[in-house]
Amino acid sequence: MRASNLALVLGEVLAHSGSVSRADIASRLGMTRSTVSRLVDDLILGELVVEGEAVGGARGRPAVPLMVRPGTVYALGLEVNVERMVASLVDLTGEVRAKRHLNTDVEQLTVEEGMAHLSRMAQEILDEMPDGARISGAMLAIPGLIDREGLRVLRSPNLEWDNLEPGEFWHVEFGGAPVPLKVRNDVDCSALTVLREAPGSSFLYVTGEVGIGAAVSMDGQLLSGRHGWASELGHICVDPHGRMCGCGARGCLETVAGAHAVLSLAGQPDIDGVLHALENEDPTALAAVETVAAALGIAIGAALNLLDLSIVRLGGHLASLRSWLRAPLQRELATRVLWAPHSGIELEFVEHSPSRAATGAGLAALGRVTSGPATWVDPLLKR
Ligand SMILES: [Zn+2]
C-alpha cells in the first residue's frame, strides 16, 4: 500500500514539478493531508523530491511547492541508429546531464564492435559521475522490432541486427556492479521525449527517417499493442500496385514518404537539395511533395479514423518539408477523416534533434524509479 502510494505521490510531483503542494496532492489523490505529508517526507529523505520557496497564499499558511530533485538518480539513455550512436545521462527532471555522440556508419560494424563503442561512451560518462549519485539502469533505442521483455532485437533491417541481445555485448559498470541494459523501439523513445513536453496528451507522432516511424499517445500512455509492436504506420499500404517495401509487402507508406523515396521522387541527392529545389519552385520537387502528402493523407487519415486523435506531430524530414506539406496534407485529412468537419485536426512539426531518442530512452529507464520509488527511497531512510 505504502509502495504504491509513494509512486502515486511521486507521479503528481513529476507531472506538476514546481507548482504542486502537499495540499494539492492530497486533494488530487483523495488522501488525507497527513498521509501525503508522510509520503512526501520519505520522498525528500530518499532524495527524489525537494521543497521550493514557500509562496504566500491569500489565506492560511503559505504553500511550499514540491519539485523533482535534480542530480541524484540518473539513467543512461542510449541510441544506435544507421549513422549515429548516442549515450546520454538523464536525471529525474528529464534533463540531459552528460552526452557523447559518435557519427559512424553502423552498418559497417559488427554488433560486437558497435556495442563496444557504445559501452566505452557510456562508461566514460559514468566515470565522471559525482559521489552519491545513483543509476537506475540503461535503455537502448533501436530502429526495429524488440521482444516483449525488452532484451532481444527481433529485427532491425536498417542496422542488420536480427535476433540478438545487445546486452550480451554490453560491459558497463557503476560502483562495482554491472549496469543492466534494456532495449526499446527508437520511435517509442522519441515519443516519450515529445510527451514530456506535453504530459498526459493524446497524439499521433510520425517521424520521417529512412523508414517512417510512428507512435500513438493516449492520455499520456504510449499504445504498445499485445507485443509492443503497435503503430507501424510506415507499413500501412497506400498503393497496392506500388513499389516493393523492405518488409516484403508492396506499396507501404515508407515506399513513398521514407527519406530515400522522397529524394528519388524529387530527383535530389539529399534533403537540403529537395528544400532548395522547393524554394526555387522546381516542378519535380513540388510534385514529389504532393505525392508524399497524398500518401501521408491515406495512412494518417486511416489512423485518425481508427483512433479518434486530433493532434498529429510530424518529425524528421517530414518536419523539414513543413512549409510545403502542411496545406496539401491538411486538405487530404479534411477529406479522409470522417469527423473532420466537426473537430479540427492540428498538424504540429517537431524540431529536429539527433538526441531525442536517446533522451527518451533515458526517461524510459527512469521508469524503474517512478513506478517503484520505495526501492530507491527506503535504503536512505535506514541510514
Ligand atoms: Zn512495408
Automatic annotation (TrEMBL):
Stretches assigned to the HTH marR-type domain: 8-59
UniProt cross-references to InterPro entries, sorted A to Z: ATPase_NBD, HTH_MarR-typ, ROK, WH-like_DNA-bd_sf, WH_DNA-bd_sf
Signal peptide: none
Family classification: Belongs to the ROK (NagC/XylR) family.
This protein's name: ROK family transcriptional regulator
Organism lineage: Bacteria, Bacillati, Actinomycetota, Actinomycetes, Propionibacteriales
